[in-house]
Amino acid sequence: MKKLFSVENLGSYDVVICGGGASGIAAAYSAYEQGAKVLIIEKAGIIGGNLTIGHIGPMMGEYEKNTFADRLTKLLAEDKFLSVYDFEKAKIKLTELLDKENITIFLNSSVTEVIKKGKKIKQVIFSTQNGLKSVSGKIFIDATGDGVLSYLAKEKIMYGREDGLVQPLSIMFTICGVDEKQNLICMHEEMDTPLKKGNYLQLCKDACASGELPKTVNIVRLYAGLNKGERLVNATQENGLNPLSLTDYTKAQVELRKQILQVFNFLKNNIEGFENIKIKDSSDIVGVRESRRVKGEYLITSQELMAGKKHKDVIVHNASFALDIHNPDGAGQAESEGLPPQPPKYDIPYRATLPLKTDNLLLSGRIISGTHRAHASYRVMNIATCIGEAVGISAGLCIKENTLPKQLKVEKIQKVLLDKNINLFN
User: Fold this and answer.
1) Of the four, 245, 284, 331, 426, which is 20 to 30 A from 1 by CA?
2) How many CA atoms lie within 13 A of 351 on its CB side?
3) CATH topology for 8-162+290-419?
């Protein structure tokens, strides 16, 4: 066992989940439903991740009814006709959801070290405003999004595509004051709208070429806002940076804030009905689409997603989203012209959540075992939430049966999902 200087141990839990975003929330609640004593360790001062401080809406990705993703959508929805929600209300609703006797949350706590004995994690150490603390656990779930727990546990890590680049970093923001007669929406490169000054997409490209927009921004995506006259703006983009680097992450924060003003001014000065817009709010954190992925017992590929592959050890059924790779080394959302490839409905297998080297660790969300291109589809929140639900069930069952995730029969996880009326095989 690796020895460190003495730190205060804050107790022992059945299931310790690192990361309190959508995937971690789903895992925590699902483990709790199985009777486990659960702890969430979250680096931010609020749970929710991209659902709250990440300022990302709508939740994307196809999924089966009655899943935890379905539950979150219904919980957060403000308008059944719009796939957007109120980020401030989401903070309240998600906190209330996890306000359970057997769920503990440590906020402002960043995991810094792992103590292993053999192939099992015994403790995680995390930093707090009162110094380093530790907790013990039986089953651990990595829902950090960046694979922090897996990295510290010395798991095999994958990063980016073959040349080492990852998808760009972004910050989303909301504008208000759009003329209610202007119904301009632009969700992707093929969604053009004619305006008095010309086609919207061409205006974006021309502004990028002239320097009015950043050189990486040749499309300003506009999603319908929750309130009249609002748009959620998805446009800012910093390429070539490593989101795990302290200096790169800070650089992204600085440059992306500058880009917000450039995009805002472009819209205000060029788009009819946007003359009186204001910036309402923006993400509190830099949006990271891709960082670490963890090699597991099964590697998901884009080829199998495009073939709609099904698995006997399915834990997420009929998932689907485009191979949505925002250009890692150029402008715009897509790697090439046109819409990205759209897979048919596919399965996520349980084996992809089982890392190679640690017996009591489960992978959740976008860090599961898959290639760069496959990750681009299942990385989105709805699918990540469904993964979290399944691994949370697995963790809870492991506690009940005093076993480990690799020894647990997947049929038992499937039975719990089927008992919730979640389709797995049709």
Assistant:
1) 245
2) 9
3) FAD/NAD(P)-binding domain (3.50.50)
pTM for this entry: 0.95
Q: How far is CA 303 from CA 85, 323, 370, 375, in A?
A: 34, 11, 11, 12
> Residue 89 class from Cβ within 10 Å (0-12 exposed, 13-18 middle, 19+ buried)?
middle
Peptide bond into 58 cis (omega under 30): yes
Other beta carbons within 10 Å of 113: 15
Q: What pLDDT, on the 0 to 100 scale, is given for residue 321?
A: 96
Residue that has been written with the tokens 């379905």 in this structure:
70
Each residue's pLDDT tens digit, 129-142? 999 999 999 999 99
Q: Cβ neighbours of residue 266 under 8 Å, at least 6 residues apart?
A: 204, 207, 212, 213, 220
* Sheet hosting strand 231-234, strand order edge to edge: 221-224, 231-234, 173-176, 278-282
Name residue 424's amino acid: L
Structure tokens at 103: 């769920």
Measured CA to CA, the distance from residue 171 to residue 256 in angstroms comes to 6
Neighbouring residues of 108: CB distance < 8 A, sequence distance ≥ 6: 42, 43, 44, 45, 128, 129
Closest by Cα among 416, 414, 341, 419 to 376: 341
Residues 348, 314 contacting (CB under 8 angstroms): yes
pLDDT reported for residue 129: 94
Phi-psi region of 338 (alpha: psi -120 to 50; beta: other; left: phi over 0): left
Describe the crossing of helices 22-33 and 381-401 by its angle, rounded to 10 degrees: 30
**pLDDT at position 348 over 80:** yes
DSSP summary character for residue 77? B
Q: How far is CA 335 from CA 65, 107, 188, 332, 400, in A?
A: 32, 37, 13, 8, 46
